[in-house]
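User: I'm putting together notes for a lab meeting next week and I want to include a structural view of one of the chains we've been expressing. I don't have a solved structure, so I'd like a prediction I can at least talk through. The sequence is below, exactly as it appears in our construct file.
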Amino acid sequence: MAGTSPGGGGERRGAGALESEVLATLWSTEDALSPVEIQDRLGGGLAYNTVHTILRRLYDKGLVRRDVDGRRGAYRPAKNAAEVTAEAMRRALDRGPDPIAALQQFVSALTPQEEQVLRDLLDEEP
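Assistant: Thanks for the context. Below is the predicted structure for the 126-residue chain, given as structure tokens.
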């Protein structure tokens, strides 16, 4: 059946969602993790090959490093979550026809706390 996992375990996750889940798993620890450790932490019946494929894609994108700390086959994030998010935001602004309008829309959707943090950051001296 389309949209479900082969074992009938629910909705099938797309590659982007899986990449996000693997990165979140890696960001949740200071340790480098093997594909088996990531598979265990993700649960949901993902096949080892699926986890390994996602890690290879993330490696090719420069988002994870492998063979860290002498643990062959272990992975850790190459960038923290804030760096990845900021880069995605920058790419989104670069793709749009009107980055100023996009920034205006973004700012108008900020919570008061987020707006204050942004104001504080903009007021800091470089």
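A couple of points you could mention at the meeting. The beta strands are 64-66, 75-77. The chain has six helices and two strands.

User: Perfect, that's what I needed.
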